[in-house]
Amino acid sequence: xxxxxxxxxxxxxxxxxxxxxxxxxxxxxxxxxxxxxxxxxxxxxxxxxxxxxxxxxxxxxxxxxxxxxxxxxxxxxxxxxxxxxxxxxxxxxxxxxxxxxxxxxxxxxxxxxxxxxxxxxxxxxxxxxxxxxxxxxxxxxxxxxxxxxxxxxxxxxxxxxxxxxxxxxxxxxxxxxxxxxxxxxxxxxxxxxxxxxxxxxxxxxxxxxxxxxxxxxxxxxxxxxxxxxxxxxxxxxxxxxxxxxxxxxxxxxxxxxxxxxxxxxxxxxxxxxxxxxxxxxxxxxxxxxxxxxxxxxxxxxxxxxxxxxxxxxxxxxxxxxxxxxxxxxxxxxxxxxxxxxxxxxxxxxxxxxxxxxxxxxxxxxxxxxxxxxxxxxxxxxxx
Length: 383
What we know:
Blueprint: H1 3-18, E1 27-30, H2 50-53, E2 55-57, H3 59-69, E3 73-76, H4 87-96, E4 100-105, H5 110-113, E5 123-128, H6 133-140, H7 145-158, E6 162-169, H8 175-187, E7 192-197, H9 213-232, H10 244-250, E8 265-267, E9 270-274, E10 279-283, H11 286-292, H12 312-325, H13 327-336, H14 360-373, E11 379-381
Parallel strand pairs: 1-3, 1-8, 3-4, 4-5, 5-6, 6-7
Antiparallel strand pairs: 2-11, 8-9, 9-10
Helix pairs in contact: 3-4, 8-9, 10-12, 12-13
C-alpha cells in the first residue's frame, strides 16, 4: 500500500480510537448495481430477477453514502461496475471527497473504458483474477477471460494507473500454480495483490469448492511457504495490499473474531445488515444500520452462515485494530512474513451458533414491490 494511503488510513483509525469509537468503518463496500457480464459459479451476488438487475444507484446516492459513512476507503464491487454509465462521475466524485477508491472489475470492459478515467493516487483498479489462465477461466466459467484481463492490466499499468488484482481461492487452488501466478503478476509490474478465501454464498451455483477454515489455513500456509522460498532465492517478493496480521490470520496464527461493521455495504437495497457477504436486512441510513443491527448475532461461532468465513471484509478490520493496539506485533509479522509451520492458534467455538435463516426471497419480494409502486428512494432505472 502506498505510504500516503497507509498513513491516512492509519491516522483515521487512530483518531477513531482516541475518540473512543468502538465501531467505525474502514472501507465502504459500494455496490451501484448487481448486473454482471459474467456468471461465475462461486458468486452469490447475481441471483436476482431482471427488474432488480436493471437498477442502478445514482451518482448522488453513491456520493451521499460515502459522506454518511465517512470511511476513508471505498471499494466498488458489483456486479460489474464498468457497466454503469455514470461510473466515471461516481469515481471522480469520490476522489474529490479524498476517498481512496478501489474500482473492482473483471476487466472485460476495461480496455474500452480506460479512457474515461485518469490516474490518481486515490484510484486503484482492482482486477478480479483467481489465478493463471487455466484456474481463472475455470473460476469464471468462460474461456479467454484471463487473456483479456491480463492485456487490460498491462495497458492500464502503461498508462500510469495503479493496478491490483483481487484473488479469491477455493479448494481446487494449487499452491504451486498460485505461486507461479503471483511471480508472473509481480513480473509484469502489478502493484499489489488482495487475496482471500471464497465465502460460501448460499445461492452460489457451485457449492462443492468452498473452503472450510481448516483447509483455508493449510492452503495459505502452503502458498506462503513457496513465497518465502522464492524470496530467499532473490526473486521479487509478492506485494499484498493487506495487513501482515491478516495474512498471518489466514495461515492460522491468529484467533480473530469478525468485525462486520468495519466494511459496511450500501447497494440498491440500502444499507445491508450485517455485512457485504450476508444480507439479513437493510437500513435506510448509515446511522440506522449502526444503531439497529444486533452485531453480536454475527460472526464465526455465533451464526451458521459465518462458520467457515475468513474473508478479508470481515477480518481485515480486526487485524487492523490489532495492529493499532500492538504495532510491534504487526511490524514483526511483516518482517518475518506469515508463519507457515507450528501449531495453529485456537479456533473459535461454533457449538453454540444459531442456525441460518433464509431471508433472500423476502428481500427480493419487498424490492420488486417498491419498484412496482415507485416508492424506492435509492433505485434508478437502467440506462
